[in-house]
């Protein structure tokens, strides 16, 4: 039983009916369809700072932040102004520009873990290219990934992936040739025995191990540092490259991402949307020695008409410069920790089976008593029913979370103390409804 009226979704519903005639499921990316939560998707009209407005004029405090990249909130003035300045000179040339150098320099001089990089237009492309590079470099075919880790939608990686696949109860995609899936070994997170067994069975065949070092696409499955160090060691011993997929954690948990947070040197790192400040950008980076296997210097081909697009580079430059300001991450992290702690304290006082897992400015709400959840199979799918109720109650109270209980939430520098106080109150009320009705 919800205590307040559902928000009006008349305009969104009308747009959704039309959209269904144009796009499969009415959307251009599956999780947007609100399939696992209440009602039709909200069609967004505008975002400003920490707030969103939908087509019906409902206003929300946004904790999805375009699935992470909007670490400065929506419509950040410096990003917007830089984009407008640059796009007045044309929007794409398919030729090099100084802006690519500028963004690369900003990244490389502030990141100890990579020496050279390539820009792409999405996280999927970055990861797909990193895998090809690892295979070309090692001259091996197999890759090893972890159950619940999502790495974009390229063929060899859509095996036991998280994100929209787990939300809809299918962990792997149709349409992947068996021969491709056979080259992907999948093991559980947080299980060194499974790793040992895979390396023994496929000795000398594994090109790369790919992991989200902060797995955030199947809940937030925080790993222990010792486990990540073990992974580093076993890769080194076997001549296998370690790829950190930092599409979520990169520039989010700190400018140097999870590699910096854990102080572990992977062989290749992939980054995504956060570099574009809301525009389509991804990248992968590594040592100069490994990166020089990429065409036109090396024999591993990878290209893109819109790679390093000037407008996207401009947004990235304006966004990353703000992240480098002294105290930026500290303030964001402290704000999120206080928010998560206050919610946990409320749930504990009431005796609710509810945990807030958090790392830096990423959080995840889980309906459980477990002190830690480190592997996908430890999540009880039945708990998603509680998330569905909570999501609806929060929308009714003006709080927007991504429409899936398997997805994490993000706090941006634009979230004010007032936003967070209102959100906490809405969460307390929503939890009372989940646990008392
Ligand atoms: N890797 C990770 C860890 C991701 O979270 C995502 C998407 N959120 C991707 C890769 C794919 O990125 P994109 O959706 O931009 O292609």
UniProtKB/TrEMBL annotation:
Which cellular compartments is it found in? Cytoplasm
User: Which keywords has UniProt assigned to this entry?
Assistant: Cytoplasm, Isomerase, Porphyrin biosynthesis, Pyridoxal phosphate
Recorded hits in CDD domains, A to Z, give:
OAT_like
EC number(s) given by UniProt: 5.4.3.8
Q: Which GO terms describe its biological process?
A: protoporphyrinogen IX biosynthetic process
GO molecular function annotation:
glutamate-1-semialdehyde 2,1-aminomutase activity; pyridoxal phosphate binding; transaminase activity
Record carries keyword Phosphoprotein: no
Enzyme kind, highest EC tier: isomerase
Q: Does the keyword Cytoplasm apply?
A: yes
Q: Which cofactor does it need?
A: pyridoxal 5'-phosphate
* Transmembrane segments annotated in the record for this chain: none
Q: Which reactions is this enzyme annotated as catalysing?
A: (S)-4-amino-5-oxopentanoate = 5-aminolevulinate
Q: Which InterPro entries does the entry link to?
A: 4pyrrol_synth_GluAld_NH2Trfase, Aminotrans_3, Aminotrans_3_PPA_site, PyrdxlP-dep_Trfase, PyrdxlP-dep_Trfase_major, PyrdxlP-dep_Trfase_small
Residues modified to N6-(pyridoxal phosphate)lysine: 273
Q: Which GO terms describe its cellular component?
A: cytoplasm
Q: Which pathway, metabolic or otherwise, does it act in?
A: Porphyrin-containing compound metabolism; protoporphyrin-IX biosynthesis; 5-aminolevulinate from L-glutamyl-tRNA(Glu): step 2/2
> Where is it chiefly localized?
cytoplasm
PANTHER family linked to this entry:
GLUTAMATE-1-SEMIALDEHYDE 2,1-AMINOMUTASE, GLUTAMATE-1-SEMIALDEHYDE 2,1-AMINOMUTASE 1, CHLOROPLASTIC-RELATED
Question: What family is reported?
Answer: Belongs to the class-III pyridoxal-phosphate-dependent aminotransferase family. HemL subfamily.
Q: Which NCBIfam families match?
A: hemL (TIGR00713), PRK00062.1 (NF000818)
Cross-referenced HAMAP family, in alphabetical order? HemL_aminotrans_3 (MF_00375)
What assembly does the database describe for this protein?
Answer: Homodimer.
- Please report the name of this protein according to its UniProt entry: Glutamate-1-semialdehyde 2,1-aminomutase
Q: Supply the source organism for this entry.
A: Mucilaginibacter ginkgonis
């Amino acid at each position: 039983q919800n205590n307040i009226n559902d928000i009006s979704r008349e305009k969104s519903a009308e747009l959704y009916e039309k959209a269904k005639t144009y796009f499969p499921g009415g959307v251009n990316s599956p999780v947007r369809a609100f399939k696992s939560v209440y009602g039709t998707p909200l069609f967004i009209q505008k975002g400003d700072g920490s707030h969103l407005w939908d087509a019906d004029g409902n206003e929300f405090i946004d904790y999805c932040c375009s699935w992470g990249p909007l670490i400065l909130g929506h419509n950040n003035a410096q990003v917007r102004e830089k984009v407008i300045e640059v796009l007045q000179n044309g929007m794409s040339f398919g030729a090099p520009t100084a802006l690519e150098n500028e963004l690369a320099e900003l990244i490389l001089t502030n990141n100890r873990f990579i020496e050279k990089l390539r820009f792409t237009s999405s996280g999927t492309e970055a990861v797909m290219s990193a895998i090809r590079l690892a295979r070309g470099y090692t001259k091996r075919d197999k890759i090893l990934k972890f159950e619940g880790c999502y790495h974009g939608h390229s063929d060899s990686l859509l095996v036991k992936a998280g994100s929209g696949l787990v939300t809809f109860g299918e962990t792997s995609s149709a349409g992947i040739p068996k021969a491709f899936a056979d080259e992907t070994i999948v093991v559980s997170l947080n299980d060194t025995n499974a790793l040992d067994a895979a390396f023994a069975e496929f000795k000398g065949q594994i090109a790369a191990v790919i992991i989200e070092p902060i797995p955030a696409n199947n809940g937030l499955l925080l790993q222990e540092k010792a486990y990540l160090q073990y992974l580093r060691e076993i890769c080194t011993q076997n001549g296998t490259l370690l790829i950190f997929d930092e599409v979520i954690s990169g520039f989010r948990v700190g400018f140097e991402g999870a590699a910096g947070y854990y102080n572990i040197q992977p062989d290749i790192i992939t980054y995504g949307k956060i570099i574009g400040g809301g525009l389509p950008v991804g990248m992968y980076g590594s040592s100069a020695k490994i990166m020089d296997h990429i065409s036109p210097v090396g024999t591993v081909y990878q290209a893109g008409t819109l790679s390093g697009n000037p407008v996207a580079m401009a947004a990235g430059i304006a966004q990353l410069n703000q992240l480098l300001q002294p105290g930026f991450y500290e303030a964001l992290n402290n704000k999120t920790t206080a928010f998560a702690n206050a919610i946990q304290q409320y749930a504990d006082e009431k005796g609710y089976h509810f945990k807030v897992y958090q790392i830096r400015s990423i959080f995840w709400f889980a309906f459980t008593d477990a002190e830690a959840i480190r592997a996908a199979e430890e999540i009880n799918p039945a708990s998603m029913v509680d998330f569905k109720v909570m999501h609806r109650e929060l929308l009714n109270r003006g709080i927007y979370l991504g429409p899936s209980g398997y997805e994490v939430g993000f706090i941006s520098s634009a979230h004010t103390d007032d936003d967070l106080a209102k959100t906490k109150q809405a969460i307390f009320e929503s939890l009372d409804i989940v646990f008392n009705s």
